[in-house]
Amino acid sequence: MKSVTVKTELKEYDIDFRSGFYGISDTIEKSGVKGSKICVITDDNIEQLYGDEVKEALLKNFKEVYIKSFTKGEKSKNLDTISDIYKFLLENHFDRKCAVAGLGGGVAGDMAGFVAATYMRGIEFIQIPTSLLAEVDSSVGGKTGVDFCGSKNIIGAFYQPSFVYINIDTLKTLPKREFSAGMAEVIKYGIILSKDFYNFISENREKIKSMDIDTMTEVIAKCCEFKAFVVSNDEKEKGMRAILNYGHTIGHAVESLKEFELIHGECVGIGMVAAMKISCDRGVITEKDLNEFEELLTYFDIPVKTKGLNPEDVYSQMFNDKKVSDSKINFVLVDNEIGKSYVTSEISKDEIIKAISYVVE
Ligand code: GLY
Questions:
Q1: Together in a domain, 181 and 308
Q2: Between 20 and 30 A from 133 (CA), which of 17, 73, 142, 361?
Q3: Residues with Cβ within 6 A of ligand 1?
Q4: pLDDT by residue (tens digit) across 24-66?
Q5: Which atom of ligand 1 is nearest to the CA of 237?
Q6: DSSP notation for 28-85
């Protein structure tokens, strides 16, 4: 089965692709992860689906396996949930030699990572993503954290896992809406890094949408390679890693204002259309490119517009984001053609408002 390696300054680790959860034992041994106990942090839905299976698989390597779950959804991604998890670890006498696993989507992985980074100043951490979005993006690269006071991921830490284990079969239980949201991040890699990959998605759209397992394994592994390449070059987002925020500048603002009505990947879809509109208005890409992009997102049921927001409110909300430095918004734009991108703060309010108005009906 496939493996992709992520190399960062502090850590080198594998993303392993397997069918089922039982292969995790080999991955644990290969990675050298040790410990007497492990706490699996997950949401209530994933606990019900996979809790027992994952526990049984982990019992091969850990004497005690605990599961701590929270209510599914972005609303749980806050310091109260983190506090609950710390209490749980303390009550169960977790010490520095114990481990934490993030099982599920981005919310579980980001919070598990934050707990691992901060509990006793850092304990062993592994990622077991089960959503497409987590598999292609959030479980890889060490960004961990929570939302705070209406701002997305504003409290957090960079903390790399010791490995990422992807059980490709979990796609079978993924709700359609979450699959679509994950596809927004998949398509993002094509836009920012590879026209070939963008064309591959477009040409294989039917196989992808029907979740053909070989095609999906290829797609997810390719996304992990892209992510590993970017993170290996710029672990702490001092430069090129920021291109992964394509669509996130407006997307995060929409997500915060929609009060969790839309899920992350959906907002990224809307944000990517807005960013693409800026490139189109600048004459960098054609209207045909923009239309085809919207059509591809729509094919995967990713929203390209949203209702009930005021463009000025979206604009103001953008300033509560980590992507703002010296009161300037850092924007990721397509550079000359799809498949190439760059970060810039040379962008006027008028351009941004025009782009927001395009996606806010
Ligand atoms: N999701 C963007 C990043 O990991 O940098």
A1: yes
A2: 361
A3: 137, 141, 143, 241, 244
A4: 999 999 999 988 999 999 999 999 999 999 999 999 999 999 9
A5: 5
A6: HHHHT---SEEEEEEEHHHHHHHHHHHHHHHTTT-SEEEEEEE-SSGGG-SHHHHHHH
